[in-house]
Amino acid sequence: MSTQKLLEKYSVAGPRYTSYPTAPYFHTGFSEADWAAALDAPSGGRDLSLYAHIPFCDSLCYYCGCNMVATRDYSKAAPYLAALNQEMARAAQWTDPARSVRQLHWGGGTPTYLHPDDIRRLMAMTRRHYNLTADAEISCEVDPRELTRAHLVALRESGFNRVSFGVQDMDPAVQQAVNRIQSEALIQQVLDWSRELGFASINLDLIVGLPKQTVASFNRTLEQVTAWAPDRLAVFGYAHVPWLKKHQNLIHQADLPNAVTRLGLQQAVNESLGAAGYVNIGLDHFARPDDELVRAQQNKTLWRNFQGYTTHKDCDILAFGASSISQTGDVYMQNEKNLKRYQERVAATGFAVERGVKLTRDDQIRRDAITRVMCDLELDFAAFGAQWRIDFSDYFSAALAQLQPLADDGLVEIAADRLSVTPTGRLFLRNIGMCFDAYLQAASASQPRYSRTA
Ligand code: SF4
């Protein structure tokens, strides 16, 4: 079957598995006491990965799916930073101070909405509460618009060594349709500054499925983007969910690429980035062959969490700020999403737990299986079974039966002792992961809706 036909066949609604159980299964019965207990539990030697959510943006991109507030009123920043400081301090009280931070990420919203002095202030607060290792991977999502060199200098001086720019699409008609105008000269400028300032890694984000996109126009974007030669690329599929994100109604439905164009866009991405020498790590992530993500995949030390693929396996994620999601060995916790209520709750108790979930042993086993498939692109039944003290083929008999049609279509190979994802199967990791998902199997039509897998 051609890749085009496979993309058509396997384009179904499905999760991205940045967590398992997935976020719709987090529940409000999870309390602040539960979160404190999770922080206080023995770490099992795991280090820390910190995340800070900066929810502010200067203007609204119509496709946005993030938890954000578009505002020009900078006076909102100071109380928010104070809440972040208080939340970090409270969590640090429950966390073993010997645990090191090996990774830190700021996302949003737009972290560089913060003025350079506030960037420095927030990082200084973080370092007061947590012990960042000298070689920590410290990254920031950056909106090229409104960015000054002084912002990047503040990031570098604060220890950031990675930046990720939202490029999305360079076509003027598409940019107009999504209210995000950024010229080639602007992107070139921010890349020049980043390289001059010595950021070790530059990632560019693109989006397929935006209004007014055509295969021809997106090929021009891909040509431009590969000429910029970023270290990594993430190419996300736009999820049009106006029933969840009201502002997406500003996008004219008629301007959205149809299913055939969308598949053509996906094909164009795979062909263009492949031809430019990028390796598809899995899902939407591409990296140069010498990138540490590619090396980690080869060494089977790649990991996957809310920030996507990472080389930092086995870190607990402590996430701060409105809507952010933390992860320990057997707990996920999401903070209050509403900015005002987040700040009020942190002022009252230091925490702002909205919901969470404590994983069962079955959850942990299935999460590990899904993660291994998505990161290693294979599963050794004996090794996995020994680790979890299960008979793999027996425990996952239903999953293996569900995987058989995917094997028939050449997406996976199932041998007596292992399951391997084929090169074509890399485009269908969500579909493969779904076979291991007990919640999905049990779900009825009324249960959570996910964006399409392709
Ligand atoms: S800059 Fe990012 S977070 Fe802000 S509105 Fe645009 S897409 Fe959303």
- Main sheet: strand order: 9-10-8-7-6-5-4-1-13
Percent of sequence in beta strands: 15-25%
Question: Which ions, cofactors or small ligands are bound in this entry?
Answer: iron/sulfur cluster
Estimate the global geometry from the Cα principal axes.
Answer: globular
Largest sheet: 9 strands, mixed
Structural class: alpha/beta
The number of distinct β-strands equals 19
Q: Could you tell me how far the N terminus lies from the C terminus, measured between alpha carbons in angstroms? A: 16 Å
Output the keywords.
single chain, 454 residues, alpha/beta, TIM Barrel, Arc Repressor Mutant, subunit A, 2 domains, 17 helices, 19 strands, binds iron/sulfur cluster
Please give a structural write-up.
This protein has 454 residues and is α/β, with parallel strands linked by helices. The protein has two domains: 17-358, TIM Barrel, CATH 3.20.20; 361-442, Arc Repressor Mutant, subunit A, CATH 1.10.10.920. Helices cover 39% and strands 22% of the residues. It contains 17 helices and 19 strands. It has helices at 3-9, 32-40, 77-94, 116-129, 149-157, 172-178, 184-197, 215-228, 259-275, 292-299, 339-349, 361-376, 381-388, 392-395, 397-408, 429-434, 438-442; strands at residues 47-54, 56-57, 69-70, 100-108, 131-142, 162-168, 201-208, 232-237, 279-282, 285-287, 303-305, 308-310, 315-320, 325-328, 331-335, 353-358, 378-380, 412-414, 418-421. The strands form five sheets. Strands 9-10-8-7-6-5-4-1-13 form a nine-stranded mixed β-sheet, sandwiched between helices. The protein has a three-stranded antiparallel β-sheet with strand order 14-15-16, with helices on one face. The protein is globular. The mean pLDDT is 93. The structure holds iron/sulfur cluster (SF4). Iron/sulfur cluster (SF4) binds at residues 57, 60-61, 64, 66, 68, 108-110, 143, 166. The site of iron/sulfur cluster has 11 residues, from loops.
